[in-house]
């Protein structure tokens, strides 16, 4: 009878342990990676008070947490998250995961970051189980923050008693990508599929998202802000929202200013994707062609004038040739982003190699 | 002076014509294609009163307009649409374009359907300009309806005076695809990127979407409904939501019933995609493996028992090997759907050829 009672107690205890595992969690805050500047607001990409003369929309967009992530090691079998964003609506060309959600990667046995799980929300504050039924081996986690919203707070939860250790940024060097909504991440299906994030995971280099939706028109105040960074490479993907005239008027300034402040830093110029809608929309067709022609012409002038360390990714269409790679005619879907990465990655790696950056 | 006045009037008239072109539009309703059955409700895929014994969720989901489209020829330079759906919320893993929106293709000079433009909405009734600045050549248009909502009405608008002619379904034969949310279209970025729709455009065959999100568990009432169709091929992609036990219990019934009613119609069995979340979630890992093992075992039994015209797509992972092709760990993004199509298309075309279907 005593043995039976002991067995019963043991069974009850293990059932309670399992239940506790499912319910009791401990939350942690973590340092935020994937941004260049220290900012008074932890989840802002740029100190908008310091750069107060940038256009208002640009300042607002640099409060979005695009490109940011937290990373830690844990043997937790469940992963929870609490986070708050604003009450702005989800964009029509975005999922709630990409816009306001979290995206988790885990380092696999081959040492690669592998997708683990993602959660979207339409609430201003969400608390949810993100991963469950993990084995109890220690793993490295990387959690991307919302692309298109301002993150107000983030806590990561593990089961009580699990190990937990914040990790340093796993990506080396700094590559600043300045661009439009496409850099910002529209229309990735989730935060980890914005193209700078894919590039970081595939190359091990730290591609930093300076994308600003509907913007990136090379305004002087923005150029000066970018030049305050001292990265290992600048990538300029800022043609899509610049008019053909703005491309002609402003390209020389952004390139020569960055070169002046950073004599040895390679600068890569990426042409605009050909907007899929431009194949039938006659007005966009002309505009899109002119944007890229003017961009290339400015590059040629700069080279003729003797600028060094400037590279032009000379490709007609970053999105392939089946016309299927956008969500809305302008913004790449994950299919489009993967195609962009297949072209941009080897080009950028080659430039880094030329400059001895590894 | 008279000549000058005439010229002035001519200029004014042409300016007014351009303005009118931007403002005056004429709306048309059109026959709906991409569904198999005639239904009392035009935008339902199945007559849910006739098949009233199907599970309630299944009936609801067959009121969604997944796979449907309208098609017409016009020389309009602008395309408008008015459509109504329900007031249900957009899914967290979908865009408002895929869930409730329209997706337009235009036949290009090579005779291929090429993406033209898409519009999402969160309203129950939307009226919007979808395409503009088209040249005035006659073109063939194809407009996909919302994947994950019930369409209540649809009108297509062209500019006043433009030609307009409804077209017959451009896709030949009928291939019924019965499946889960993945067939239904989660998480395509827009309606035209659900995998049956991509297959139709690429092959010219009419792949008909019988996908039902969170369902497709081969219930007898659903099997009987499917057998009332008389297509040129059945594709069964119904493993993802069926438990391993349901796969074992129900596969023989669906296959033998379809074979009994349609002695010569090829039947293709597709294994479940490996859910990306199943690589780390130990419970899903076991379940996902068992689902596919049982599915394959049932196929082998059926073949042993002498069934003919049954084909099994024997592939471990339809989504590639970089683990990047889903939106939420279960549902393919456009990247995942395109990878599925690359595998499914040649397999299906080969089976059609074997059966002399062209």
UniProtKB/TrEMBL annotation, chains A, B:
Q: Which part of the chain is the SGNH hydrolase-type esterase domain?
A: 172-347
Q: What Gene3D superfamilies does the database record attribute to this sequence?
A: Galactose-binding domain-like (2.60.120.260), SGNH hydrolase (3.40.50.1110)
Which InterPro entries did the record assign?
Ester_Hydrolysis_Enzymes, GxDLY, SGNH_hydro, SGNH_hydro_sf
Record domain SGNH hydrolase-type esterase N-terminal: where = 30-164
Q: Name one GO molecular function term.
A: hydrolase activity, acting on ester bonds
Point out the signal peptide segment.
1-20
| Superkingdom of the source species | Bacteria
| UniProt KW keywords | Signal
One Pfam family name from the record?
A: Lipase_GDSL_3
Q: What name does the UniProt record give this protein?
A: Hydrolase
- The record lists the organism as Sphingobacterium paucimobilis HER1398
